[in-house]
Amino acid sequence: MGRYVIRRLLQMVPVFIGTTLLIFVMVYGLGDPVAAMFGDRTPDPATAAQIRHDLHLNDPLIQQYWIYMSGIFHGDFGKASTGQPVSELLKSAYPVTLKLTIVAFVIEAVIGVALGLFAGMRRGRFLDTGVLAITLLVVSIPTFVTGYVLQYLVGVKWGIVKPSVGDGAPFNQLIMPGLVLAGVSLAYVARLTRTSVAENSRADYLRTAVAKGLPRRRVITNHMLRNSLIPVVTFLGTDIGNLMAGALVTERIFNIHGVGYQVYQGIVHNNPPTVVGFVTVLVIVFLVANLLVDLLYAVLDPRIRYA
Amino acid sequence: MRGATRVRWAVGVTVVALTAAACGGGDSGGGGSSGGSGGGIVRASWGDPQNPLEPANTTEVQGGKVLDMIFRGLKFYNPKTAKAENMVADSITTTDSQNFDIKLKSGWTFSNGEPVTSDSFIDAWNYDTQLKNAQLNASFFQYIDGYDKVHPDAPGAKASAATLSGLTKVSDTEFKVRLNQKFALFPDTLGYAAFDPLPKAFFTNRSAWLAKPIGNGPYQISSYTKGSKMELKKWDGYKGPDPAQNGGVELRVYTDNNTAYTDLQAGNIDLVDDIPVSQLRNVKADLGSRYINQPAGIIQTIAFPLYSPRWSSANAAKVRQGLSMAINRDQITKQIFEDTRTPASDWTSPVLGDAGGFKKGLCGDECTYNADKAKQLISQGGGLPGGHITITYNADTGSHKEWIDAVCNSINNALGNNKACVGAPVGTFADFRNRITNKQLNDPFRAGWQMDYPLIQDFLQPQYFTGASSNDSHYSSPTFDSLVNQANAAGSTSESVSKFQDAEKQLVKDMPAIPLWYQNGSAGYSSNLSNVALNPFSVPVYNEIKVS
């Protein structure tokens, strides 16, 4: 187990370097950020040259990447266009997005698994068809549509909650955005669980458990659910990263100042350090989430062992 | 009769507003800013400023909003008339349009108690100009003598002086400015934020100052959470004639103007100064008279690369005039922009007013839709170069595609050739600007000009004078240049303005850029507010807003 984790951690190093290099090249390939600073006005050459010098823009790309990476290992992620260090932005934005992700993740896991379980156990009945129809509907509507519609109905028309999220993003205000963000994944989780549960309900070990005379509750939670959750956990694990990255749309609609907001600002203001810094941290989140998922397999299914 | 109905309506609205405010006070909880104590707070939408909040480093409107509230310069543009009036300056006098004597009013201080003296201006202007500080607005100081020593133009050149030789201190309340050329309208440019004074606190600890800027305007910043919100409160020690009429302003950053608009509808915010395009159809029904839509100091044009052999011949001017006449401005502003643009008939903006140099219809027939005449002129000029043209634009911001396609459609219909004109998108704004600066374009491109100060000079000289900083067309006309020089050397403002208009008439003949429309500024506000107006820069006049 320990050796497996170390091996996986070592494998992350080349993946990390490769992805950051790709992101770096792509973002810096967007064009000269100095030109955009001046708006429609033509930059005066001397000032532009001074800014380019300060930002190392005249050096070859690979050298810029080197400067950037060596900065990262000192905790220096460069500066946003406002002159604020990107590390400060990371500190203020990631907790907010993390909160939103947690809310969305809980909604998705709890409601998704519950719906899938009920539908799977009553296969072909009314509840099952209903869940299938509703999840199909949710999957086919884009997030920004559900976002704007819910925001208008709940926030403006009925006035139940505030249509936007205030400073510091308290948990109670994140429920609506969390629901919107979780929507599509929730539908997938429900369908995955349903299929898996339906399949396992005819498995030998389940019949044995019932025959042994175990209480129904124990059969469902310990035998059926635990075995049915493996594909769902795989999905949920990779989805943590997706939720954080996918928050871009949701955060914009509900005015949440998290990762999506900062990345968007970085792109609009054409500020490479912001974009590369945030995406780099997202890459780390993806890698760690993947490792955790692999380790969880062993917990769920004793047949899986890591050496 | 009508008057009476309106009064009754107004009373009704006020009653509703009061009830709403009363209800709002109770459940707003966390917001806690609405309602009575010591003048209400205006909750307004904001965007994250693009650059650090220094006067000479702010090129866009979001940072400009804040500078407008916390700073007052030598002059101040009257929010209604756009006329430059003395603010910190007591008088600015000259005998030769080149040497200016500036006297300050006494008693002005910054909000940290430091007095505003002539040093506050001289030190600030020197700092703003120095090359090593890389201030984006450094070029505004280019007319001051010694600029080329402090800020040499060639990339890589080293500065040979640290201070502008054209600035001389006489006393704490008086200093002299010597320009490197005659410039009659110079005093009128001094209302621009780049010319604001800076306190000593800025020079001793710049990063602390940037975290919470200190100025001499009607507001002071009480808290600033970068990227999220800024709270400004009325500064009681303010010396100017225009103190804040409300207790303060809370600026909230919105990434999406749709959300800001939704928040306005839900009563979560009081003032939104950018109505999203998708809401333009509903805004009148939603807000009624609380929707403002008026011309701003922004003109949009289609500029031609006159350095390209396709457009440099003498006959090409006829083709450009023809293209201008092939564009149905009225229809496009109505259909595409829902009347948030006003068809242009000159190269300035209505915000200048007649006295400031705006002249409706100066361009005449050449800017009026006339399909037959357009076709005729283009064929006289030898037809479109190569049989067709493209119009380049950036696709990332500002939804330019729609109107570029409409312009091309209009041209194609007028010429009866559906391949005559197509739009050519460029991925990012930065790339788009680079292609223009590096002279890589061979066909017309979209151009926009937002005025820095409400002067006809600012619309003409930077864009069309030979070798000027934003002359992206690389237009060069000896007649135009000499008229501009005469205008700058003129003895009086009115004489100067009329000379500039003469120069502008040369643009009709050469058509280096086709005027399309003036952009409007828009805003919507809640019934808690009254006396809301936009200034010539289409920024809300925050200090005049009354909160009920």
Automatic annotation (TrEMBL), chain A:
Q: Which CDD domains match?
A: TM_PBP2 (cd06261)
> What Gene3D superfamilies does this protein's entry cite?
MetI-like (1.10.3720.10)
Transmembrane portions of the chain: 12-31, 100-119, 131-154, 174-192, 228-249, 275-300
Record has Transmembrane helix as a keyword: yes
Q: Which domain of life is it from?
A: Bacteria
The membrane-topology field of this record reads: Multi-pass membrane protein
- One Pfam family it belongs to: BPD_transp_1
Q: Which residues form the ABC transmembrane type-1 domain?
A: 94-297
Q: Which UniProt keywords apply?
A: Cell membrane, Membrane, Transmembrane, Transmembrane helix, Transport
Q: Which InterPro entries match?
A: BPD_transp_1_N (IPR045621), MetI-like (IPR000515), MetI-like_sf (IPR035906)
Keyword Transmembrane carried by entry:
yes
Location of this chain's protein in the cell: Cell membrane
Which family, according to UniProt?
Belongs to the binding-protein-dependent transport system permease family.
- Descriptive protein name: ABC transporter permease
Which lineage ranks, top first, belong to the organism behind this chain? Answer: Bacteria, Bacillati, Actinomycetota, Actinomycetes, Kitasatosporales
UniProtKB/TrEMBL annotation, chain B:
Q: What are the residue boundaries of the Solute-binding protein family domain, all occurrences included?
A: 87-470
User: Region Disordered: which residues?
Assistant: 26-58
Q: Which residues form the signal peptide?
A: 1-22
List UniProt keywords, sorted A-Z: Signal
PROSITE patterns to which the protein is assigned, alphabetical: PROKAR_LIPOPROTEIN (PS51257)
What Pfam families does this protein's entry cite? SBP_bac_5
Q: Which portions of this protein are annotated as coiled-coil regions?
A: none
Output the superkingdom of the source species: Bacteria
Where does the record place Gly residues bias?
A: 26-41
Protein name as it appears in the record:
ABC transporter substrate-binding protein
